């Protein structure tokens, strides 16, 4: 009986030893595919800028109509009521500004600076819709500033001059990109500018030895079909 148990254990251990590399490989592939899916979901948010612009225009048009209607009604109000309205509006704007500032402070992990295009904006953690409406944002599960790996930062482009990554296409190889983490300041030299298809997530991979940075936005601004990629390596 003992001999049968020992034999079974030996066979089980042998099979497990043979199967382990394959199981390990399958698990690694699963994790890789999961990571790629997360990255693609993050990057897909970048391509929604045109939709955002259209929605913003709709809102602006509605606001203009509201303003016209409001002005007609305000003419009927006395000066005291108008003053009260203005004070309430000011309080609401101040409250919104405070909430935005608190939100930025909560999710901010640094400041991205590109002197050539007069760019300086907070880097928010996670390329979510909420974060990218406010500023540029780091893509989770990539690298970190100043460390070995590929620190990937995504941002929208818009038709407003200088907003977010609108002028990123002006950046060329040899230019400098800076990241201020609060504790340290890191400088990267731009090594290349690429135009890739939306599904090409390889641009987020790290070579495992360099301290890299990758800036990502949609291209062109009107009806984007590609992504503009700026890659750089740290200046030690």
From TrEMBL:
Keywords noted in UniProt: Coiled coil, Hydrolase
Coiled-coil parts of chain: 69-106
GO molecular function, one term: hydrolase activity
Active site as annotated: 156, 218
Any Pfam family matching the protein: Sortase
UniProt xrefs under InterPro entries: Sortase (IPR005754), Sortase_D_2 (IPR042000), Sortase_dom-sf (IPR023365)
Protein's UniProt keywords contain Glycosyltransferase: no
Lipid metabolism found in the keyword field: no
CDD domains: Sortase_D_2
NCBIfam families according to UniProt: sortase_fam
UniProt-recorded name of the protein: Sortase A
């Amino acid at each position: 009986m003992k001999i049968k148990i020992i034999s079974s254990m030996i066979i089980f251990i042998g099979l497990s030893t043979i199967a382990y590399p394959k199981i390990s490989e399958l698990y690694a592939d699963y994790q890789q595919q999961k990571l790629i899916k997360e990255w693609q979901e993050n990057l897909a948010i970048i391509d929604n800028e045109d939709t955002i612009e259209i929605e913003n225009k709709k809102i602006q048009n509605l606001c203009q109509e509201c303003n016209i209607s409001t002005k007609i009604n305000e003419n009927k109000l006395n000066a005291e009521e108008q003053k009260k309205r203005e004070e309430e509006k000011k309080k609401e704007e101040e409250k919104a500004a405070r909430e935005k500032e608190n939100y930025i402070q909560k999710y901010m992990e640094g400041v991205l600076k590109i002197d050539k295009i007069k760019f300086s904006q907070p880097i928010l953690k996670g390329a979510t819709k909420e974060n990218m409406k406010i500023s540029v944002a780091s893509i989770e599960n990539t690298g970190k500033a100043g460390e070995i790996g590929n620190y990937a930062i995504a941002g929208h482009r818009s038709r407003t001059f200088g907003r977010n990554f609108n002028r990123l296409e002006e950046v060329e190889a040899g230019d400098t990109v800076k990241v201020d983490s609060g504790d340290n300041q890191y400088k990267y030299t731009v090594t290349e500018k690429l135009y890739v298809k939306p599904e090409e997530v390889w641009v987020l991979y790290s070579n495992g030895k360099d301290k890299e940075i990758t800036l990502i936005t949609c291209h062109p601004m009107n009806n984007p079909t590609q992504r503009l990629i700026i890659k750089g390596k740290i200046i030690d």
